[in-house]
Amino acid sequence: MILTFKVEEEIKVKDYLQNKLTAKLLKNITTSNICYIVNNQNVKNYYLMKPNDILKVIIPPTSSNVLPTKGELDILYEDDYLLILNKPNNIATIPTRKHYSSSLANIVEFYYVTKGIASGIHFVNRLDAPTSGIVVVAKNTYIADKMKDCFLEKKYLLKVHGTILEDGFVKTKIVKDETSIIKRKNIEGDNAYTTYKVLKNDKDSTLIEATLHTGKTHQLRLHFNYLGHNIIGDELYGKDSFDLLHLHSYYLKFIHPVNNEIIEIKSLPNWLS
Questions:
Q1: Is 74 a catalytic residue?
Q2: CATH number of the domain that 228 lies in?
Q3: What is the pTM of this model?
Q4: In this structure, are 29 and 81 located in the same domain?
């Protein structure tokens, strides 16, 4: 990827880029020995630029140590900068000790290798292994960093036990549960905020559209547990023994980090009849 900037003042390359790129990315560019280009000439990072100079910076490809594993990807959107996928239930997003070669990242790496794509795997959002739905992969560190400020809306579909009659919101503080490596818990506070709409009431369950205003670990699972309506299939915070968590990231709206277009992605869960 090549970034292009029009300079408006007399300034050195390294000083100009301090406010444009992260320190980590600047270090990667420097160690890769890729020259900066000003007005079609290779320069060093201490080169003094003038107003109206055109600076081009080559973002080096990211190497990956993820083991490629053959598998199917449900691709919802792809361009030179982003890969957006529909993640199935019960698959880890990134490799772990238990899922060293069976995560979504392993399948993405296989896809890259097969298609000859020299890109990194940088998950902008992650879903718990039991959760399905939209996952965004940035293809380099620059895009991953830019995407942090691009999200406009994140919505989930979920089905909970019991009947919820009215729309509402939940605001708590979510912290680590000291009795567990995995679990979190609600306490009094306001670092986690969810609003929700009731879509449908069945005999013993309610279909909900929930909007995340913060992104805490297990936020929706904890918030509906807090309301006394655990998500169906939640073995961690509920008492279910189902193998399918009825929680799905189904809507994403964001500003594209390069062309500034509004992108909307939708995906419906398999469990929605």
A1: no
A2: 3.30.2350.10
A3: 0.86
A4: no
181 in any annotated domain: yes
Give yes or no: residues 224 and 163 share one domain: yes
Are 8 and 41 in a shared domain? yes
Number of domains making up the chain: 3
From the candidates 128, 177, 204, 234, give the one annotated as an active-site residue. 128
With a CB cutoff of 8 Å and minimum separation 6, the contacts of 180 are none
Show the domain range for 37. Answer: 2-58
Angstrom distances, CA of residue 122 to CA of 63, 143, 149, 212, 226: 11, 9, 15, 21, 32
Per-residue pLDDT in tens (0 to 9) along the chain, 273 residues: 888 999 999 999 999 998 888 888 888 787 777 778 999 999 988 999 999 999 999 887 776 789 999 999 999 999 999 999 999 999 999 998 888 899 999 999 999 999 998 888 999 998 999 999 999 999 988 899 899 889 999 999 999 999 999 999 999 999 999 999 999 999 999 999 999 999 999 989 999 999 999 989 999 999 999 999 999 999 999 888 777 999 999 999 999 999 999 999 999 999 997
Residue 266 lies inside a defined structural domain of this protein: no
DSSP 208-253: EEEEESS--TTHHHHHHHHTT-PBTT-TTTS----S---EEEEEEE
